[in-house]
Amino acid sequence: MEPARRSRRAEIASLRADLAAKGAPLRQVAQVIRARYNLNSRVAYRLAGGLTQQEVADRWNELWPSQDGQLPITHKHVSYWEARPLPTGRPPSPDTLNRLARIYRTSAAELLDGEDHTEGLTPLLSGSLRLRPVRPSPPSWLGRSLPTSSAALTPSSPKPAPRSSVASPPTNNLSKTSSSGPVV
Questions:
Q1: 29: domain range?
Q2: Number of domains present in the structure of the chain
Q3: 170-184: per-residue pLDDT in tens?
């Protein structure tokens, strides 16, 4: 006779307990649950914390009580946020993601199901990759561009005339004198 199959809830609880006993952080527990059971991050973090949807709603209402006659959050709200991107789900707002992240003790970014591209950035962080400095573009109010190569700085290149935003004062021709006398 075959042993009775455990429920998924019992399997996840056992997995969570095993990983916690080995010292795995909550993030790693959530990642294992997400990968093993093909769940989205919001569900995985809730299960990694050992919470039900109703317990999440209860914690939400303790931390952020309803105001101005609003109804409290229920397990159904949590269900809608977890079901997203399915047609039956509703997208959680950034404020909602931040509040869920506080309940789950993680960051809002961890609750989104985007791809992780941080592995490719490790050479930048370790300093093994050298970046050449980028010359900033001149401010638009300057009205001219900076030379881009050392060839542009050679003496054979004509220097641009300086621009003056102040007009020179008018000259009075009567005040000028020449060798032959006043200029009229």
A1: 8-115
A2: 1
A3: 555 554 554 555 555
In a domain? residue 167: no
Separation between Cα atoms, residue 93 and residue 63, nearest integer Å: 17
Q: Would residue 104 count as lying in a domain? A: yes
| Side chain identity, residue 22 | K
Query: Residue 48 in contact with residue 29, Cβ under 8 Å?
Result: yes
Q: How confident is the model over 56-100, as pLDDT tens digits?
A: 999 999 999 988 888 999 999 999 999 877 777 788 899 999 999
Does residue 146 contact residue 135 with C-beta atoms inside 8 Å? Answer: yes
Instruction: Determine, yes or no, domain membership for 162.
Output: no
Structure pTM? Answer: 0.60
Torsion sign across C-alpha atoms 38, 55, 98, 66? positive
